[in-house]
Write a structure and sequence with these properties.
Blueprint: E1 2-9, E2 12-16, E3 27-39, E4 42-46, H1 49-56, H2 60-71, E5 81-86, H3 118-129, E6 134-139, H4 163-179, E7 183-188, H5 206-223, E8 230-237, H6 241-249, H7 252-255, E9 260-264, H8 272-280, E10 285-290, H9 302-316, E11 322-327, E12 330-331, E13 347-350, E14 355-358, H10 360-369, E15 377-383, E16 388-394, E17 399-406, E18 412-417, E19 422-427, E20 431-438
Parallel strand pairs: 3-18, 4-5, 4-11, 5-6, 6-7, 7-8, 8-9, 9-10, 12-13
Antiparallel strand pairs: 1-2, 1-20, 3-15, 13-14, 15-16, 16-17, 17-20, 18-19
Length: about 450
């Protein structure tokens, strides 16, 4: 029995119970819930200082509205994951760290700044969700005094004499967040380690990341009882992820500390690279850790939602286990950002007029997060249609979830079929659709 059909379409969004069609079938979608792949850990977004500060400027009602849109387990996107920066990133009000300069013993370590905006935002989101949020922590740069270029921005590298101190810094961060009552499920070694950005950044070659994990960060996490934290390498674009994974994970000792590989969507849509890494290292996990629409705010643009759908279908079809979007909310110009790297977000807050704008990307994410449960599995499915992309999941309760995207200017008619039932449906042009099927397996 086909139980639900939801479509986001170019020119607007609408929801309806499915209306099957008698039009000529162009392609057949087959699915086999008995053949499954990766388990899904969930969906979320980043609690950046920019997002938290932006929401602090909104009315109490609209601040709550934004958090409810994301974290309400019934009416929202049902987010269960989040990402936080280990001190500043570009979407912060400025460069900042948690220690005084040259405090090699980290005696001055203090995350008091996070209690001003970021941690209250996380706590309020957890209250709406009525459950903890699993957080992933990422550093954008060590403190300037630990680096060769003496600058948190513009790339540079970590000095060898500070390798252990920098590893200890992660531990202090985990401890501080735990003391605040928050749950970190993992950390990444470095945000975008191959990019020399004008904002907070730090370069690691593949060999340098391997050795830092093997000799410092991995052993330090284990020595402090944090072997359960997911340690994620790369945390960068798909284009070079195979080479990075080969270098780090082919080292048995380094690999023993690594949970998996994090990917971003900038530069490349080489989704097949995720499958290549999974084939080479089948015991490692794949997680989407960042993506956004660049170059400022783009209200009422459906193409941004289409980019999300295309990337989410592509990544999940290649063994990705979860999706963490970038900023949860930004202001009317796509900031604040301390170097002017303005971007878009699924929710834009006009802080001048106390107005909330919901972008097409928000609805697209919902096509997945509202229906694909934590611990769902991707299942085998096949569709030979020139214009329609898809991915299928099996929820723990037995519900089949199929997300389909038609980026073309022509409607498509497909037959969704398994051994017990079939349904002929029209997939509208320029649309993203979610179909839910309940069947006895």
């Amino acid at each position: 029995m086909l139980i639900q059909y939801e479509t986001s379409k170019y020119g607007g969004y609408y929801h309806k119970i499915v209306e099957e069609t008698n039009e000529k079938v162009e392609s057949l979608l087959l699915f086999n819930p008995l053949n499954s792949y990766q388990k899904i850990i969930g969906f979320g977004g980043a609690f950046t200082e920019a997002s938290a500060y932006t929401l602090s400027l909104m009315s109490k009602a609209n601040r709550h509205k934004v958090l409810d849109l994301y974290f309400n387990p019934t009416t929202g996107l049902r987010y269960n994951l989040g990402r936080v920066a280990i001190h500043s990133c570009d979407f912060a009000l400025e460069n900042y760290t948690y220690v005084n300069d040259y405090d090699v013993d980290l005696k001055s370590f203090n995350i008091a700044r996070e209690f001003q905006w970021v941690i209250p935002m996380i706590k309020d989101a957890e209250a709406i969700r009525n459950a903890p949020i699993a957080l992933l922590a990422s550093p954008w740069s060590p403190p300037a005094w630990m680096k060769h270029n003496h600058d948190m921005n513009n790339g540079g590298k970590l000095k060898s004499e500070y390798f252990q101190i920098w590893a200890n810094y992660y531990i202090r961060f985990i401890q501080a967040y735990e003391q605040a009552g928050l749950h970190l499920f993992g950390v990444t070694v470095q945000n975008e380690p191959a990019a020399q950005q004008v904002w907070d950044s730090c370069i690691y070659t593949a060999e340098e990341e391997r050795d830092f994990v093997k000799n410092y960060l991995g052993p330090t996490l284990h020595a402090n009882g944090y072997q359960d934290k997911a340690l994620i390498i790369w945390d960068h674009n798909r284009d070079l992820m195979v080479e990075r994974a080969q270098t780090v994970l082919s080292d048995i000792e380094a690999s023993s500390y690594v949970w998996g590989v994090g990917v971003h969507w900038y530069v490349s849509e080489a989704f097949e690279n995720l499958s290549k890494v999974k084939s080479m290292f089948p015991d490692k996990h794949l997680l989407f850790t960042e993506g956004c629409i660049e170059d400022g705010v783009k209200l009422n643009v459906f193409e941004t939602g289409e980019r999300y759908a295309r990337n989410m279908i592509g990544d999940f079809s290649n063994h990705c286990e979860g999706y963490i979007d970038w900023n949860l909310a930004l202001n009317e110009i796509g900031g604040p950002n301390h170097v002017g790297n303005y971007c878009d977000a699924p929710i834009i807050c006009d802080t001048q007029n106390d107005t909330v704008h919901i972008n097409s990307s928000y609805f697209t994410i919902g096509h997945f997060s509202k229906y694909v449960e934590v611990d769902a599995v991707r299942i085998e499915s096949h569709l030979d249609h020139p214009n329609i992309k898809h991915v299928a999941f099996l929820n723990p309760n037995g519900t089949i979830v199929i997300v389909l995207q038609n980026e073309s200017e022509v409607d498509g008619v497909i037959d969704i079929k398994n051994s017990k039932q079939n349904h002929t449906v029209k997939i509208k042009k320029r649309s993203v659709s979610t179909i839910m099927i309940k069947e006895d397996i």
